[in-house]
């Protein structure tokens, strides 16, 4: 009786394992993504550095898509361009803005026909200096 129960349990376990493998294989054959958390669209964040001397750009994109990162000024003059290959899914870059004059700028992310723009303004605060004079 014990042998019959063990054999029956083993047969059910093997059928369940085989069924799970067939279902997973069928899902892959139907084109379901193997990584459901992978981004399906370009996601980006643009933020200043703590010292205010650089602008950070963080990008996540699906594999298989080429992306162009551009920085332009308010007259639409191209200041920087970089192409991110289709095999890269995550990218970080830092733009040093210390040498740029005060004004309005944009970071553009061009993905085929889609363009995502992140605007920022550079402005310099006047320096306050103080002198100490001593009388003798």
From TrEMBL:
Q: Which UniProt keywords apply?
A: Signal
Q: Tell me the leader sequence span.
A: 1-28
What's the name of the protein?
A: T9SS type A sorting domain-containing protein
Lineage here is: Bacteria, Pseudomonadati, Bacteroidota, Cytophagia, Cytophagales
């Amino acid at each position: 009786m014990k042998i019959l129960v063990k054999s029956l349990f083993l047969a059910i376990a093997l059928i369940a394992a085989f069924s799970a493998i067939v279902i997973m294989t069928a899902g892959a054959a139907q084109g379901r993504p193997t990584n459901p958390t992978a981004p399906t669209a370009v996601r980006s964040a643009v933020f200043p550095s703590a010292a205010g001397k650089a602008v950070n750009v963080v990008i996540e994109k699906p594999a298989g898509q080429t992306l162009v990162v551009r920085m332009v000024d308010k007259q639409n003059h191209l200041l920087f361009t970089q192409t991110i290959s289709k095999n890269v899914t995550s990218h970080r870059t830092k733009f040093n803005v210390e040498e740029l004059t005060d004004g309005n700028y944009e970071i553009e992310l061009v993905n085929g026909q889609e363009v995502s723009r992140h605007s920022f303004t550079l402005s310099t605060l006047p320096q306050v200096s103080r002198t100490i004079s001593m009388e003798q």
